[in-house]
Design goal:
single chain; alpha/beta; inorganic pyrophosphatase (n-terminal core); Diaminopimelate Epimerase, Chain A, domain 1; binds adenosine monophosphate; binds manganese (II) ion
């Protein structure tokens, strides 16, 4: 019987990692950071990279612009992350010979940390899967065919740590990263490669049900009440091809939920029969409007978002609009109708 045990299930293209490996192998202190309002991919990728580097003897520190949302805090159980506002952040950034930026390649998505990251003396490197970033980094590895930054960090882990089993907490962080960015392995970014990587993570000891529960099954009643209010106000247009929900300050107050609880709400209208584009509008306390968009295959919401200064991916994009609420909302809805070739008002 032939054994395939020695064949790595996920072929690793070591060539494209060469420069990044060179930089990381000669680094002593590395700060690892990501985008504002970190999601599962952002936090999972940051923590996994930090722990991988620590295993190789590098002093690595996670640095965040915003604190992790409650449901993702299990990924930083040891409280290693330094969050902007903490006086230690400046010290970490100025003492690092490398600053690694993951799951983002657009400078302004670093938020409050942007200027400090750009002014820090360390070498900037970037590992991401988003299109058209402007973040100045060298070397950088941008692979838009990767489901998530986590999928890329997994690949890096094989080169940095060799073929031995991944420590469980690294495997769990990467699993959470990939699971959240693929919507539980459902979105179009999910590939055979994604599943191969995930198979390896499960072999390293990850229990899918455990991570799923940690991330998604922690809702408080306030959150489901807000979801109820949002869904009760669901609106559709152009024969159901466009659907949107509104999270207003009033609805937040009525339900008692918080802004960060809205993560994932945009998924529900996607289940509508015949829907092409789904938009979630969220009214921020500042008066700005945070927009999340999702589209089915063949419809590009990245282009729609870029018309308003936003970005993201072809099927998942976002914008931070200046407001006011009604005008921003109408402007985007109008552009969406036009993009879908529907009638305009
Ligand atoms: P979200 O709807 O917040 O899950 O974001 C969907 C995608 O759009 C993510 O890949 C984000 O990186 C991207 N995105 C969200 N908000 C913005 C923004 N204001 N500017 C650029 N890209 C964004
Ligand atoms: Mn992200
Ligand atoms: Mn991502």
């Amino acid at each position: 019987m032939t054994s395939h045990a020695s064949l790595p299930a996920v072929p690793v293209d070591s060539l494209r990692w060469r420069e990044i490996l060179d930089v990381l192998r000669s680094a002593k202190r590395v700060a690892v950071t990501t985008h504002i309002h970190p999601d599962g991919d952002a936090l999972g990728s940051v923590m996994a990279l930090v722990w991988m580097l620590q295993l190789t003897g590098v002093e690595a520190v996670p640095v965040l612009t915003d604190p992790a949302p409650e449901n993702l805090r299990f990924l930083d159980a040891g409280g290693e992350a330094r969050v902007a506002g903490d006086p230690r952040v400046d010290a970490v950034l100025s003492a690092s010979d490398v600053i690694a930026v993951v799951d983002v390649s657009t400078s302004d998505r670093l938020g409050r940390l942007m200027n400090r990251v750009l002014a820090a003396p360390g070498r900037r490197i970037c590992i991401d899967h988003h299109t058209d970033g402007d973040f100045p980094a060298a070397p950088s590895l941008i692979d838009t065919s990767a489901s998530s930054a986590g999928e890329l960090i997994y690949e890096l882990s094989r080169l940095l740590l060799g073929d031995g089993p991944l420590p469980l907490r690294i495997a769990e962080a990467l699993y959470a990263a990939i699971m959240t960015d693929t919507g539980g392995f459902r979105y179009t970014n999910t590939t055979a490669r994604t599943h191969r990587v995930v198979a390896e993570l499960i072999e390293a000891g990850v229990k899918p049900e455990h991570i799923y529960r940690e991330v998604y099954h922690k809702a408080r009643p306030e959150v489901l009440r807000l979801l109820g209010l949002a869904l009760a106000g669901l609106q559709t247009d152009i024969q159901g091809r466009l659907a949107w929900i509104d999270i207003t300050q009033e609805r937040l107050a009525l339900s008692g939920a918080r802004q960060e609880d809205v993560d994932g709400f945009v998924e529900l209208p996607r289940t509508l029969l015949g829907v092409d584009v789904v938009i979630l509008f969220m009214e921020l306390q500042s008066g700005k409007v945070k927009v999340s968009m999702r589209s089915r295959e063949g419809v590009n919401v990245h282009d729609l978002a870029s018309q308003f200064g936003g970005g993201g991916h072809v099927h998942a994009a976002g914008i931070l609009m200046e407001g006011p609420w009604i005008a921003s909302r109408e402007a985007l809805l109008e552009a969406a109708r036009k993009a879908l070739g529907g009638r305009t008002a």
